[in-house]
Amino acid sequence: MSIQWKGIMPAVTTKFTDNDELDLKNFEINIKAQLDAGVHGIVLGGTLGEASTLSDQEKRKLTTATVDIVKGKVPVLINIGEQTTTNAILAAQKAEEDGAKGLMVLPPMRYKSGDRETVEYFKAIANNTSLPIMIYNNPVDYKIEVTLDMFEELLKCDNIEAVKESTRNITNVTRIKNRFGDRLKIMTGVDTIALESLIMGADGWVAGLVCAFPAETVAIYELQKAGKIKEAIEIFRWFMPLLELDIIPTLVQNIKLAEVYTNLGTENVRAPRLPLEGDERQHVIKTIEDALKNRPTLPDYKNL
């Protein structure tokens, strides 16, 4: 296994300038903050990364820039969310050329593929890259569920190694462990149930609010790993109002606004997304400001 599927892997936001170009300066500030906090990997070009608005050239630029910033300290993964099998294979091969160490792969976009089609799609990608793969299982948002029986077939591909478990059903963690043991690593993908998922045996957390609050996110993981559940729960309870900003359609705008308040990014999003306004904006600001007023003092979580 070439990636240690564990710990905190931020699904990072993509930074844009006022002219709607990649803002690699602010992007680097955020990535370095994630590394300083002790994250275990970086995931590019997911929903939070506004993948659907990025050109192929921009995705490649983000990948090579991140690889350069990270310098091998943690693995860099890029998301693949394509409409055709051919384009998904090409994206995987370009990611490998650009220095990515792994892939997070969504089911086919737009077309609601059946079980057999979904399995063949994932297998085709896996058979045309040497990179390790994490299947993104999010039927709530993408309307396609990868069932345990489907994983039984998919795990015949040695490089399909992990699942980003986003079904919102914590019992799936136990079902996966009972069925596959450590053969299929579990990265929980829903911020609001992350701690519960970790306690039940998930190996790590592909996180969202970590973009603005990296230390707190890593601390929760490290505390629960060390058996300090009470301490992890205290931070998680403080975190919950912020985490709930990650499970609504405006999650990108919400988290980018939080990044502004923690000096880790800008509010710029790419159309058709627009910055928040009105009562919605005021609600998010109040949530962030309330959290900052009561921000917990963290233990020395790196040396537990």
Explain what this protein looks like in three dimensions.
This protein has 304 residues and is α/β, with parallel strands linked by helices. It has one domain (7-303): TIM Barrel. The chain has helices at residues 24-37, 56-70, 85-97, 115-126, 139-142, 148-154, 171-180, 194-199, 214-225, 229-243, 251-261, 278-293, and strands at residues 7-10, 42-44, 76-80, 102-105, 133-137, 160-165, 185-188, 204-207. Helix 1 (24-37) crosses helix 2, helix 3 packs parallel to helix 4 (115-126) and helix 11 packs across helix 12. It is globular. The mean pLDDT is 97.
Topology:
Elements: E1 7-10, H1 24-37, E2 42-44, H2 56-70, E3 76-80, H3 85-97, E4 102-105, H4 115-126, E5 133-137, H5 139-142, H6 148-154, E6 160-165, H7 171-180, E7 185-188, H8 194-199, E8 204-207, H9 214-225, H10 229-243, H11 251-261, H12 278-293
Parallel strand pairs: 1-8, 2-3, 3-4, 4-5, 5-6, 6-7, 7-8
GO molecular function: N-acetylneuraminate lyase activity
InterPro entries: Aldolase_TIM (IPR013785), DapA-like (IPR002220)
Binding site for pyruvate: 206
Average pLDDT level: 97
Helix and strand content put the structural class at alpha/beta
Amount of beta strand? 5-15%
The biggest beta sheet reads: 8 strands, parallel
Distance between the termini: 26 Å
Compute the CA-based radius of gyration: 18 Å
In helices, the fraction of residues equals 40-55%
Number of domains: 1
Low-pLDDT ranges? none
What is the CATH top level name?
A: Alpha Beta
Helix-strand sequence: EHEHEHEHEHHEHEHEHHHH
What is the third-level CATH name, the topology?
Answer: TIM Barrel
**Count of alpha/pi helices:** 12
Number of strands: 8
Q: What is the global morphology?
A: globular
CATH superfamily caption: Aldolase class I
CATH architecture field: Alpha-Beta Barrel
Instruction: Please give the order of strands in the largest beta sheet.
Output: 1-8-7-6-5-4-3-2
Family: Belongs to the DapA family.
Active site: 136, 164
Keywords: Lyase
GO molecular function: N-acetylneuraminate lyase activity
